[in-house]
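Illustration: Copper chaperone PCu(A)C.
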Amino acid sequence: MKRQAKLSPIFLALTLWLGALHCSDAAKQDNAQNNAIEAKDFYAFATIDGSNISAAFGTLSNTSEQPIALQKVIIKGKIKGVAELHQTTNDNGMMKMLPVDSIAIPAKQSVELAPGGLHIMLINLPKPLEAGKTIALKLTFDDGTTLDLQVPIQARQAHKGGH
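Result:
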């Protein structure tokens, strides 16, 4: 006759409690790592009639002692589409927007994503982005951390370069 091991309810409860405590500490560590990057003054442009593209801008500040790179952006929520990291460059007087693999943020420094420079390109949008609303973006960094943003959508204004 085989004997079955039985766990006492107290032992089982203690094991579950310790596991939850460990997960809680891991979540705190992840949040601390996420706090190394601060996103400020983010906005996206409303789409122009008939267009399915836009761009998002803002400032990313790295408060850590190590360089961190933005590697990927995903559009979340009801608005779908594709987000790409782009750089606007001047090639012999011709402005070009080209995709980049990542955006480096040096230790203890900030990088501005702005029209005419580095930015997040929003393409293949299935519906227009309307001023006064928001778009949800998830930023993923090379250290594995992520940052979720609710980015306000602004009307386009006349400006130099870029979008």
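Reading the tokens back as a structure: Helices lie at 9-34.
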